[in-house]
Every structure is written in C-alpha cells, then in structure tokens.
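Two proteins were folded this term; both appear here.
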Amino acid sequence: MPSSPALNAVSTDAPADTAEVIGAPFSSALALTAPRPGCYRAELSNVWSVNQHGKQHGGLMLALVGKAGLTALAEHTGSDQLLDPLAVSASYLRAPDTGPVWIDTEVVKVGRTASVVAVTLRQHDQPVITATVTAGRLPDAPMEWSRLPEMAAQPPGDGIFTSSVAGPLPPLATACDVVLDPRTAGYLRGERGDPVLRGWVRPIGEQPDPLFALLAGDILPPVLFNMGRPGWAPTVQLTALVRARPAPGWLRLESVADSIGGAWLDEDMTVIDSTGRLVCQARQLALAPLRT
C-alpha cells in the first residue's frame, strides 16, 4: 500500500508526474525468465516500491505470483496460452525488496473447470510469499445479479492524482494512474472520518487485464488514513477473486474496513470496470499504522 497522505487535486487527463514513466510499467514488472521448468526469475524494480526503502507493493506481488502460477500451468499442460486467474491467495512472510527474486511452482491439480498451482516466491534464500493460484476461464456472459457501489465511470474533474504530491513521492505513485475521490479522502483536508476510500486506477501504456485487476485490489492508500493513522500498512494476507476480464478504461475502486482493533486492519476492495461490471473482489489483513 502507498503510505504518503499528502496529495493535491489536478486534472484527470494527464498527470505531468507520470511523464518519466516509459512503456508499460505493469507488464514490464511481470517479466519472467525460466532457469528450469516450474522455476522462474523476476526482477523487482524500484518503480513499484511503496516507500523510499524499496519495499515492494503487495498488489504487484500478488499479480507476479499469479503470472508465475499461470505460466507454470501452461508449461505443465503444453498450452501456448495462459488461463485466467480466478483466485489468488497469498501470505506475506517478509516485505520483499527491490532486486531479483526466484519463484518456485508446483501444479497441484489440473481440472476441466479449475486448476490449482502452489507458488513460493523467495529472496535472499528465504521464502517471502507463499500463494495458491486457482486458474480457469473467466465468464463472458453478463452477471445475473450484483450489488455494487455507485460511482462514475471516470474520475471527476476534482479527482486527486496520487502522483501530485508536494514533496518526496513513493515511487509507486507514478507506476500507474491512481485518482482519489475527494469526497471520501477527508484526511487530505486534515479531517477524520470513516475508514472508506473510493478512487480510480488505470495502467500506463496498456489496458487493464485480469492480472492488473489483482493489483487494483490493493492500490488505494490504507483506509486508516481517514482515522488519523497515516503510514505503511504492510499486508499479512491477501486474497483476490477475479470475476471478469476488465473492459478498456478506468477501473473504479471502493475500499472499506469492517473491523479495526489493536495492530490489525482488514480491508475489502471492490473493483469495477468502465462498463460497470465487477472484475475483482479482494480482502486483506494488514498491520495498522500507529495512532497519531
């Protein structure tokens, strides 16, 4: 999660701060090489770090282990196409740093509807993330029923880009376009309120896909910012269900906490695409920043 609470309102057309980002930072971050079957190497870039110490973003890591699991399954079955991520559940054992990581996979089940791959991401000879990736084919048919928050398909004119911070920025702020809804981000005005945040996200240089939907499930600042508790909220466990392939354009986001107590924080994220379709549901358990 990003940790800087100081943001400024700007136009939602093209934030100047993202001009230095070249190409497609999201797809580039998921690049894998295969030293041997079922084992992959990836390079964690500072582009996706959440602070000045190079700690990597939890949502990006979820997409990375998801990509590794899908790749291993395709190799195992001899397919030239990746399946879709239906669900990815990860436990974060340590906060990964910028630099190389190795990802070991084990295909647990190959099924007609759903297949399962166990994934372990390692760094400095230690396990960093353990995950289970469930893969299959996402439905193309419309949802039969859904109850979703009402949000505009695009950010409003007074939306707040996270790339427009006055002062030092976490690198993540320019890795993709994230816009906050000022009506829910009271902490930006020094106000305190409910642990609810809404916003919008889109990748730079490409359109959202199911793996980007996994990232979107963890892209907003911690909702505890609205309760006067800014700071890094490291993810302990994160599970995301992908429900549909995102349509091109902005993804709408709503993050809500149901229970906050002691050192622990839960967050539920709803991700909706530009057509109004639910594309991801994510729930995580995180360590809460200290009260100020």
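Next, the second protein.
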Amino acid sequence: MLQAAYAPLLRNPLWQAEAQKWDDFDTLVFDNLDTVGRAVFISEVDGKPIGFMSHDPRNAPQSVRLGHNCVLPEYQSRGVGTKQLHEAINRLASVETIRVSTGEQPFFEPARRMYAAAGFIEVGRHPGGPDPAYDVIEYELRQV
C-alpha cells in the first residue's frame, strides 16, 4: 500500500531503496494486526483497505510519534488522509504531545497543509531522508 501511495517519489532514483522498506512495513502490519497492527488505523471502503496511519506508542502518554499516513492513489484528494489524521488525534486524546515528520519535497505539500490545518506546529527542520536536497520537517501537536 505504501509503495502505491508514494509511487511518484520513486521517479527520483534516490528514493528507490525506500520501496523495499515500504513493502516490509506493509507486510509487518498486515501480517501482525494483533500486535504491531494495534498501532495502525486502517481506512476501508467496502471491506478493502484504502489507506492507513501508523503511530509509535512506546513513549505514551507523554508523546506519540505518528508514522506513515498513506492513501491509495485512486482515493487521494478525497479527504481520507485528513480523516485518518483526525481519527488518530481522537484516539490519542490522552497523549500530551503528538509528533510527526514529513518531507520538504513538493510531493509532501498536501501532508504539510493537513498537519498545519489540524493544529500541528512546525518545531524544526533537519537534513535527512533519501534526497539530501530536502529537509525533514518536524511538527508537534500539544494536547495538554
């Protein structure tokens, strides 16, 4: 699912190594819904998974880091990712701080707008990710 959602990034050869990581994450989650899968919110249409958002709960209730938020291409630009984000925020209401990061690349512009609209504040930028021409942007949502 991640590879399909992030396919435009693969046009850049620097992102090619990420494809296997995305496949490995999909397999880990969907093969282990009772363990790792508990930290994933899956969106479905007619019983078919169309997107998901993951989180890392190991530092809860002080903080939780959101992970992948992906939507299959045929369901993008319909508000699914925003609904997934709001569902995650609602389910994590007892967490003091929700953190998330995304890329500076133009591909991630919708994600940046979505996080800002949900009340996340940019707290920093740093080099990282497959393409050194772009920074990773860190966001936080404080709920206390």
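The CA atoms of residues 128 and 136 lie 6 Å apart. Residues 16-31 form the longest helix (16 residues). These notes refer to the second protein only.
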